[in-house]
Amino acid sequence: MVTVMRSPSPALRPFVELVWYMDEPLAAGLERGIPNGGMQIVVNLGDDVIHWYDGDATQNVQTTHGSGLCGAIARPIGMDVADQRHCVGVAFRPGGAAPFFHPPSDVLVEPVIGLDSLWGRDGAVLRERLLNQPTPDDTLRTLETALLARVVRLDVLPDGALERSFDRRVRPIDPMVGAAVDGLSRGGAVAEVADRIGMTPSTFNRRFRATVGLNPKPFARIRRLQRVLTKITADVPGTGAMAVDWAMVAAEYGYFDQAHLVNEFRSLTGVTPTAYRPRSVDAHNHVPMTR
Q1: Per 3-state DSSP, what percentage of the chain is helix, strand, and coil (rounded to 5)?
Q2: What DSSP element (H or E) covers 69?
Q3: Residue 232 burial (CB < 10 Å; 0-12/13-18/19+)?
Q4: Which of 232, 225, 235 is closest to 185 using CA atoms?
Q5: Looking at domain 2-152, which CATH architecture does it have?
Q6: What's the mean per-residue pLDDT of the chain?
Q7: The CATH number of 234-289 is which of 1.10.10.60, 1.10.510.10, 3.40.50.800, 3.20.20.80?
Q8: Which of 186, 190, 180 is nearest to 211 (CA)?
Q9: Closest Cα to residue 107, out of 22, 214, 31, 1?
Q10: pLDDT at position 160, please?
């Protein structure tokens, strides 16, 4: 059993929160994956397939090859635990995936998109290259090298649009988007953040969506829920959500009332607050399902 989670190389740190390698005998089953506002690359080293389950009851199964980009979406998605037993991946910061993919982020709206369709041959052979590495550290270094080889230069045009071209130099995230992500993640209202940055709502929405993949309002909802999940899993080590004072949590995190919190929670996790039981404290975005 091996699990490695670490910060990426310095060149990638402005864009990538962490890289990971996992080889664990996880129990079979399905999970709901809760959105966090960012994108991820996931490579299933155990089998050349990634499954996901969509629909109100996660009844619609879809698949792609074993290397995929998980897009920024605003709903929970069903996942097969078997795909996570032996895998490697990249967790991008919100907006951090934009320099590494040619389509703008708001086009990458599927829960999982095969890297072969985004990177061509480079994406098609990535899994095989990773499988040929002798150690987890070598595997992660190879993944980071592949990522840097796919850098797309981003330039903001006068009308606020993003122009893209291949370039081997990593360009910073649009400063406006970085400031907006920080402000919204801290609980700032969308209108206040846009006003502080000095942009009209339409320009703000367009540039934010093109980089992050979500409009500012659903992104803010997701980040607020993430703050709630971090708090309750830290306060209740056994993840016993029944012990949480949800009315107090609603007031602390700016929901209108407890009913508002319950509706938002169900919309973004697929379960009610009292039914929420994550896989573990360290995996609060993974909620085991029963069929």
Answers
A1: 40, 20, 35
A2: strand 67-70
A3: buried
A4: 225
A5: Sandwich (2.60)
A6: 88
A7: 1.10.10.60
A8: 180
A9: 214
A10: 46
Token pair for residue 258? Answer: 């407890």
CB contact at 8 A, 99 and 170: yes
Cα gap 29→142, rounded to integer Å: 30
pLDDT digits (tens, 9 = 90+) for 29-70: 999 999 999 999 999 999 999 999 987 666 788 999 999 999
- The H-or-E segment that residue 194 falls in is helix 190-197
Tokens 């004072």 locate to: 245
3-state secondary structure of 145: helix
Residues of the chain with CATH 1.10.10.60: 234-289
As a whole-number percent, the residues of the chain with pLDDT over 90 amount to 69
In this structure, how many other beta carbons lie within 10 angstroms of the beta carbon of residue 163? 9
Structure-token match 């059993």, residue found: 1
**Residue 56 and residue 290: Cα distance in Å, rounded?**
14
**Model pLDDT for residues 77-115, shown as the tens digit of each residue:** 999 999 999 999 999 999 999 889 876 677 787 899 999
Structure tokens at 30: 């399905």
State the CB neighbour count (10 A cutoff) for residue 4: 16
